[in-house]
Records
---
Amino acid sequence: MQTIKPELLKSFLQENPVVVDVRPPEQYSPGDLEGALHIPLRDIQQGHHNLPKDRPLLLICERGVMSELAGLYLEAAGYQQVYHLEGGLQKLRKVAEGL
């Protein structure tokens, strides 16, 4: 699994990854990252998803912990193009404020 720094997110999104928000339903907000699929971590852990193996996957969550864990599960399931957002949406918001 590779880590994407928030400062590099915009350029990484040009590679057309599937963006997956792994937060639980009570934390999820559709407007946090436009176009993201919502697949909670527990569903990824249980294999309840149909994510493509032929495209990069960018996993996001609030602080970067759940997305990293989801990435480990996906790698164990044979996914090779797995990325997670360093520091999660929290760090992305801080970086965006600094611009």
Note: The chain has one domain: 2-97.
---
Amino acid sequence: MQLTTTHLLATPCDDEEDNMAMLCCHGTHGEMFMLSRYPDEDEVELTWDYEPSTLEGLKITLSATTLLVEIGAADKDALGGSDHLQINHGTAEADLAEVEETLQNILKGTGTYIRTP
């Protein structure tokens, strides 16, 4: 499954939301994707098209132009029946450090994060 967005919005630690880390974007066709996690929780909340699910064991790969989200086969209902979502993004290079920090905070101890060029 694919989604195209102009940029990824990232918040590594939101003080007003009990230090929640959140990454989200809206697709060019109105789709909405969001990952979030509170630091004291073991599960990640993934929201796809406004339907939230809690997951463990996510694998996320970030590059300069794509974000690949991979989930276990047992959780594929969270992505409308698919086990992956490729997000093509136009996030500015200067903003990718914040995206990376946010993903590391979300996945720490519960998933896998990979950064590629």
Note: The chain has one domain: 2-115.
---
Amino acid sequence: MALTQLDPNTALIVVDLQKGIVGGPLLHPVGEIIARACAMAERFRELGLPVVLVNVAGTAPGRTERTPHRTAPFPADWTDLVPELNRQPNDIVVTKRTWGAFASTDLEARLRARDVTQVVVAGVATGTGVESTARQAYEQGFNVTLAVDAMTDTRPEAHQYSLTNVFPRLGETGTSADIIRLLGARNP
């Protein structure tokens, strides 16, 4: 479904734009993904709307058939958000240890306390962190919008599957420019 509207109390959720992830092999130039996420964050902040910055600091404890990507400890700055995000004192920062930002965190409660009814999701990786966060938001009753040009993945097939098959079932999709344009109709 194409982007039609944003609720008056919409939050931006930026997933895993952190030093330990953005340096890896990604499908799209990470600088462009970061720039688009930053442009949205700036506009949300201008309007006094919540900006949620999410990082990941581990994995869920369950067994899987796939060997973990990493067994050594992460470097000291691995979880640090990229400085371009310009973290502000009013931003909500969530550290997760699962794919999605709502599981095992207080994100839902923090958004509900601010009367948020809709979320815009962007970041890395499309088929894991972004999709899981969007699914969890949808399951918690938030309206969901996905900024499709402000996300990327390491796997082309996962990125495309999420865009084509999953996201249209969770909410509306649009570009970061579409989202900023809809926000532009509001007074700063």
Note: The helical segments are 19-22, 30-46, 107-113, 126-139, 156-170, 176-184.
---
Amino acid sequence: MKRTRYTITDKIITRITGCIAGITLLVLAVWGARTCYILHRFEQTNDAQVQEYINPVISRAGGFIAAVRFEENQDVKKGDTLLLIDNREYNMQEEQTKASIEKATAQLQVLESNMHTLQKTAEASASQAEAIKAKVWKQQLDYDRYEKLYKAESATAQQLEDKKAALEVNQSDYKAAQDNYAASQSRIEDAAQEKGVIRAEITRLKALLSRHRLDVTYTVITAPYNGRMGRRTIEQGQMINAGEVLAYIVNNETDKWVVANYKETQVAHMRIGDTVNIEADAYPERTFRGTIISLSPATGSSFSLLPPDNATGNYVKIVQRIPVRIKVAGNRQELDLLKAGMNVNVSAVKKNNL
């Protein structure tokens, strides 16, 4: 009886073992068939990462940070204030430039008043010259008459000499009046040139004032678009310089994409516009869709700092990879699940047509 019981138990164990082996073989067969189908149907790579625009927040003005109004990983809207820089020095520069403009404007007004006075002086010199000119004309006529009378012995030499002296004095006065008029005109021209210089200085100061006002606006650093802030490394009271990177912001207004580095033997049948499946390591139960938007014009190593030169040293053939850019489809809620730098697996359908 004991021998029979052991025999039945052995049969049961054998059957169970056979069933398990059969199920295992079936599972392996299904898995193998599925793997072969996937390998035959899709081009896959796990050398792929999520990318999106991550831009630096750069200061365009230097100074002490008066306030920091963002935290790490905070969502911000376009125009939100991120940082405030102490703007007192920039305000003082603006006020100094305003005062310089007011001073130059006052100088221009004084110069215009002087030009008016010079114009009146020139007109008076011109009138005086005309009056003396009339006297010269009258003296010339008198001299000519006395010269004729002297020749006719009807006038004395002294009378002729008196007329000649008076004529020469009036001619000298006329020349002096003309010189005074020319000098007045010259002073007017000088004043006009000086007005041009002051006007040019006012134009320069206005441009400088605009720059100072622009510098004041630079002391308020705002978000350039809707996005999420990165790591915060600055604090209130810290000294910064113009052009310094203060933080990083991830742009929420642009699409996300995946850069999949396919082997050169895998891209023969890939075309722009092909649909691909994307599986993120962080969400293995979800499948994202994407569209190929471009293929790199060269291998990744060709864009490296020191591209390999196969003409030197011992040559070892290494399969190169071609970066393929894939736009991720989906709504904003789905796209927010994918973060820049995440590793993903990409599957592209093979196509037989070239």
Note: The helical segments are 2-41, 88-151, 157-218, 332-335.
